[in-house]
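User: Last request for today: this protein with flavin-adenine dinucleotide, please.
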Amino acid sequence: MSNARNTVAVIGAGIVGVTTASFLLRKGHEVVLLDPERPGEGTSFGNAGCFNGSSVVPMAMPGTIRNVPNWLADPLGPLSLRLAYLPSLMPWLIRFIRAGRPEKVAAQARALRTLLAHGIETLTPLLQHAGASDLLQRLGHLIVYRTLAGWQKEQAAWKLRADNGITWDEFDGSELRQLDPNLSRAYQKGVLVRENGHTGNPHRLVNSLAAAFARDGGRILRQRVLGFDVVDARLKAVRCEDAAVAADAAVVAAGIWSKPLAAQLGDRLPLETERGYHIMIRAPEVSPRIPVADADGKFVATPMELGLRLAGTVEFAGLTAPPNWRRARVLLEQARLMYPALAGDYAEDRLSTWMGHRPSLPDSLPVIGTARKTRDVVYAFGHGHVGMACAAVTGKTVAEIIAGETPQIEVAAFSPRRFA
Ligand SMILES: Cc1cc2nc3c(=O)[nH]c(=O)nc-3n(C[C@H](O)[C@H](O)[C@H](O)COP(=O)(O)OP(=O)(O)OC[C@H]3O[C@@H](n4cnc5c(N)ncnc54)[C@H](O)[C@@H]3O)c2cc1C
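Assistant: Here's the final one, the structure of the complex with flavin-adenine dinucleotide:
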């Protein structure tokens, strides 16, 4: 596929689909964006809004698995697992454990950095064009530790960041209090990564990009994609619930829902949902100025347009199990430990909760590359914990692949064939 003005169907209007569609349109293609829902209502809706170039540390690190029993035993802990789901999770878990070997982790971090290092710079022109520059602020990201032992335990992760060119400033307990007087006095250590940014409204950010895409001539159709018409290894059309959309190329950017679509094209990928939650407090008593992550609790407090968002936790329970809202309430308890001035109780109308599906591969890397059955379909999914931060470079890379250009970043590490 190398001719501009071909029709490209982008499947999924989350942050990855919308940025990809925008870059494709800029290359001169006809682009149609397909999603049964309005843009930005999947996982891109309720995340912590962090655009962290520093998020190069894979979820599976040497020793991660040793923490699991403690995390599972702690009712306020960052991880939960529904036992009935364990047999289904097992194959993914085995790959996850294998991915945590030191030499693999170093390679994964390097690959992630290629997507993350210029994430903000790559997204900024799209946001400026959409008149939405206010939706991305580059004020840094603060990570806080309750104990120096906790900080020591994470030295391997900080070394990985340093190895990838990430710099930071460190603060002791009393300096932290000067930085944010509302923070609990329990924190002993803080680390500020200045290159990182955040959005005050991920949903509005995706919507602003989608609106600009439509204004520029892109088409958005409220259609669920069911499959592909492929003849002699060439894509003819994308089949939807109500119609077939003729297309010369397609991008699968449907987040966690990409798995069955890729399977139809001959790629059985170990994509698993790491379910996460948020709880928002409208008009909170106190709020940080920039996102603050509690390294032990593994949650982020992000100041947002509509209130203070506490987001995090990982729950393994599959795609269809109902949410366990207790996991969101746990975040409120954690937030009170971070900011003691937050009230003990809130009227329900000041709170809102949300659950979303991080689309995760066991090696913490997304899938970016062409389908087995046809090179006309390109995958762009599986961004796990860092989809907001990686989306722009992913989108630009996919547009380069579809235009027949050599991508500016090395994509081998993201190959759909790496699990074969
Ligand atoms: C609690 C939590 C906190 C997070 N915090 C951060 C953070 O701070 N920073 C960060 O970078 N990342 C964060 N993430 C991860 C990030 O939210 C995701 O990686 C990202 O939103 C994935 O985007 P996506 O476009 O791939 O998927 P989605 O946003 O889920 O979009 C997929 C779209 O595909 C559509 N779709 C599904 N099936 C079909 C079909 N058959 N046909 C057409 N369309 C279809 C869906 O309706 C949906 O709109 C967090 C995630 C969670 C859960």
